[in-house]
Design brief:
With about 325 residues, the chain is α/β, with parallel strands linked by helices. About 50% of the residues lie in helices and about 5% in strands. It has 17 helices and five strands. The protein has a five-stranded parallel β-sheet, with helices on both faces. Helix 7 runs parallel beside helix 12, helix 8 crosses helix 9 and helix 10 packs across helix 12.
Amino acid sequence: KPLFVLSAYRSASTEMARTLASDTRRFVAPNAIMCAFPYLWLWKLVTWIVGDDSGITTDEANGYLNKNFSKESLERHDNNHFAIDTFDGYFLSSHLNGLAFRFGPEVIVKEFNSAQFEDHNQYLFEHCFVEHVDRIARKTLHFNGMTSSSRDKTFLLKGHFLLSATALQKKYPDARFLAVLRDPLDRLKSGINHMAVNATLWQGKQPRWDWLTESFQQIEVSYCEREMEWYNNGSNGDHKYRLAVKFESFVKNFGKTMKGIYHDLLEEEILPNFVPPSKVSKRYTINQSLQELGVNEAGLKLQLVEYYAWAKKQ
């Protein structure tokens, strides 16, 4: 019964996944290093040379691995390579989808839309991606000492791969799916700023804010429509395996929200003493508003009026 924290970009899904992963009694999850380099021998090597009792601390290793990321980028995402992170980001980087940001908004929409595939990549997301998930899951369980006769823990994976959700449920009929619902306009603003300050995408060139604004609006609308459909329309009892919680509830009513996740989705009554997420608002060096980006906020809200009504009920 794997659990997929399957949520939109910049929705606090990483915070949710890391909270759940801290319940090591219940979950095992691959960290970012494991997702980027899916080789058991390398995972073992890393545990020997990185850690509190080894020659290199995780902070030192993260500092080295993040040396090509700007301060502005790390403000948006800490890039902790030894914690759970966005799985499909690593999968797609191996397919060079980051190059889409050099070809304009039309290509970005086709290659960076986590809600729907194109004809040319349907097989990739319906078959190759699912098989890759399965291999990572089996390796992660094995790496953590699990055997076929002692499956007492749940595999946990986090990402935005909504376009593969149907194929994943077919592969794992008892899989659970969890989403964090954040205001789409907040996600959009955060997403555009985050990608603009990620220097690894632009390779020394100035970020194309106009490309990001045009493409990410289309992607956001597409994701909202698919997210609402997926979490609202389970069939044959599938809906009980899908749960969406509001971002505000996760932050402001943390204990109640986690209790609901464990009870309603995981059928579990025992919760660990989770550490609540910080309520301190972050200050970013670069933080363009939607107005500065030229986004018609009123028009976008009108386009997503059905999504807003649905999310409010969750």
